[in-house]
Design a protein that fits this description.
Mean pLDDT: 83
Number of strands: 15
Radius of gyration: 26 Å
Order of helices and strands: EEEHEEHHHEHEHEEHEHEEHEHEEH
Largest sheet: 6 strands, mixed
Number of helices: 11
Strand order of the largest sheet: 5-6-7-3-8-9
Shape: elongated
Distance between the termini: 65 Å
Strand content: 15-25%
């Protein structure tokens, strides 16, 4: 594929975006800007409103209130929109009877994109060998690659991906991660939603986090983790008591860990190492500890999770229910001790009765 050309930065601007479905408020007055030159991660628990927000960005859903502007315009005002913004929202959003080549060709012709770009896009995502195969025979990973090819087709200034690594093998995940970084380095705007926190931690520079449709955070990755988690230093020494005394005398708050180490907040590892050296203390461990993105995310969104998993007494599976929901009518009493699974009230409790009818 031809080298990507650098572009003047383009932005996605969201102002007071709101979406209501009947009594359900799916998106609640969201305001944020997705800027060029960085990868912006879009995070939130299930039901937070991420997909609805992304659909409204592309005019697939109409907002109840508020606006979305792509490069200063509403999506519907863009002429040949694939040249402005490329998006992957659903890897299965294609005609299964068409080949990969013809799927992209239809998109290209509808947006004034040269035919040559179809071959370039297929080559970029590694689907040249199956270009003439029908999409309905594609695996999930191949479908993802085709969806990414469609997003890249118009050489757009803005890229938007929803769960782009779904179904990809490790090589594919590494490829899409580096592709997004390359696009951002060229000055493009990259907006990506994912539930894979470990992958997002390796990819995103900036985070927009929502919960129950409301904005919870709009900040850099480093600042997000710092604000929503505890940072401390672990120290271990064969002179455990003397180390504790030295730290206490220096005014540091010390908490014991289960493995015998000491945890110290509010001071750097360098300072603690110098303090230990001044007192001739031997250290077996001196390690700064920082929470992962997943831990920080869980801390921030704990009160915004709409669906919680609960233990199912009838087996190893978990039952999902809206947070704070009451027990369902007819759930029945708990089974007697020693009773077989489903003997009373649980999932499948009346299966034997129905079978005997």
């Amino acid at each position: 594929m031809e080298p990507w050309r650098p572009y003047r930065g383009r932005m996605i601007e969201i102002d007071g975006l709101t979406k209501r479905y009947g009594e359900k408020l799916a998106v609640d007055r969201l305001t944020f800007t997705v800027r060029p030159g960085i990868i912006t991660g879009f995070l939130g628990p299930n039901g937070a409103g991420k997909s609805t927000t992304m659909r409204m960005m592309l005019d697939l859903d109409h907002p109840t209130a508020g606006t979305v502007r792509i490069d200063g315009k509403h999506y519907r005002q863009l002429k040949d929109p694939l040249k402005y913004i490329g998006a992957l929202l659903d890897a299965k959003a294609m005609h299964g009877g068409r080949s990969a080549y013809h799927h992209l060709l239809c998109l290209a012709q509808s947006n004034g994109i040269p035919r040559a770009r179809v071959h370039q896009a297929l080559d970029t995502v590694g689907l040249t060998a199956v270009a003439k195969k029908r999409a309905k025979g594609f695996s999930l990973g191949m479908g993802q690659r085709l969806g990414i090819a469609a997003a890249l087709l118009g050489d757009p200034r803005i890229l938007m991906f929803d769960e782009p690594v779904n179904g990809l093998d490790p090589e594919g995940i590494h490829w899409i991660r580096n592709l997004m970084k390359s696009l951002a380095a060229q000055g493009r705007t990259v907006f990506v939603s994912s539930h894979l926190m470990s992958e997002m931690a390796l990819t995103a520079d900036h985070l927009v986090v929502i919960g129950q449709g409301r904005l919870l955070a709009d900040t850099s990755m480093a600042d997000f983790i710092r604000r929503n988690s505890r940072s401390y230093v672990r120290m271990r020494s064969p002179e455990h008591e003397r180390l504790r005394d030295v730290l206490a005398a220096a005014g540091h708050t010390v908490a014991p860990a289960r493995d015998g180490a000491l945890e110290i907040d509010g001071v750097s590892a360098d300072q603690l190492g110098e303090l230990a050296a001044e007192h001739g203390l031997v250290l077996h461990e001196l390690s700064p500890q920082q929470a992962s993105l997943e831990e920080a995310f869980m801390q921030l969104t704990a009160e915004s999770v709409e669906y919680h998993a609960h233990s199912d007494t009838t087996g190893p599976a978990a039952t999902a229910a809206p947070a704070g929901s009451a027990p369902q009518p007819g759930a029945g009493p708990a089974p007697e001790p020693g009773a077989p699974p489903g003997a009373a009230g649980g999932w499948g409790a009346d299966w034997q009765r129905k079978k005997g009818r």
